[in-house]
Amino acid sequence: MTRLFRVSDAGLLESKRKPLDFEKRIQDWVENDLTLIGVEGIILGREVRTAQGKRIDLLAMDEDGNLIIVELKRDKSARDIVSQVLDYASWVCKLTTNEIYEIVQQCLGRSLAETYRDRFSKATPETLNATHQMIVVASEVDEQSKRIIEYLSEEHDVGINASFFNIFGAEGQEWLTTDSLLNQEQVKERSVKKARAPWSGLYYVTGGSQEDRPWEELRDYGFFTANGGRIYSDKLDNLEVGAPIFYYQKGNGYLGYGRVTTPKMLASEFTVANGERLVDKLPVPYLTDAADDPDNASYVVGVDWKNTVDRHAAQTFSGIFANQNVVCKIYDQETADFLRRKFNVSGNDEPS
Known about the structure:
Layout: E1 4-8, E2 11-18, H1 23-32, E3 41-49, E4 55-62, E5 67-72, H2 78-92, H3 97-108, H4 112-120, E6 132-138, H5 143-156, E7 160-170, E8 173-180, H6 184-192, E9 203-206, H7 215-221, E10 223-226, H8 230-233, E11 244-249, E12 253-260, E13 265-266, H9 278-281, H10 285-288, E14 299-308, E15 327-329, H11 333-342
Parallel strand pairs: 5-6, 6-7, 9-11
Antiparallel strand pairs: 1-2, 2-7, 3-4, 4-5, 7-8, 9-15, 10-14, 11-12, 12-14, 13-14
């Protein structure tokens, strides 16, 4: 069980855990920031009415067009909450593209195309609702619920997870902690693997635009970085040493192919080839800002960039795979074949 203390000169002051008795506040927080439950997406509607007259607390969509059901546990039993989200899912899975557009227009008063473009800066995917996920939000989940959720997700690839919200209070102040029963990225992976092509074995990474992270710096000093919060920097945990990555520059194209050479570490701890600290050789804000804050500091992995091009010779084509995720797997076969060809990734350098 999580315990929270405030550090003071007089010692440790323990904050008292509060019950999850104000669902509307939690619902508001999640609606305003889906990353609290490990999701990067958009809200399609709140209290969305199903064909059976039930109401889904929040209905969301990720960048790939997959739907996400978010339901607060409140005082429901283990059997009731799992049964409820599965019932919602039986309705959501049959929603057509037109029905999804109608739900958004009715709930938000604006089109899905506008809502999606505002968040992801591109057109809505042609295929929507290829798969879906369910997330139960609770202060805690009993062992029966955990077993059911783990069984459905890990054994049967059902996209279901639980997100824990704990609120603590002391001296008139409140703090919120969040956690998940299962890794949400892995839950998503399992839920979508039947709805798309096999993984190519290659990884996509992006640092944004040239203004955000100059390509020449990443290439010349042999690293890739992410910062701005755990939701971004934790993506680097998906890159094991030896992982094959292709770097994509926002608004430009693919610039390099390389292999990861080090596990994730703080930028302040990373050293370049001559043994000097990266932040001493390259004291730039995207590496040095919030250095004393582990949650928001910059993290890096080392990269042996094997084949690269200048940013003015970026490799791309109409419809090439690209998105705003810091790190993700490349499933699009056309993109994988194109990148292997353009960056001379031979059979001898294929991922094991």
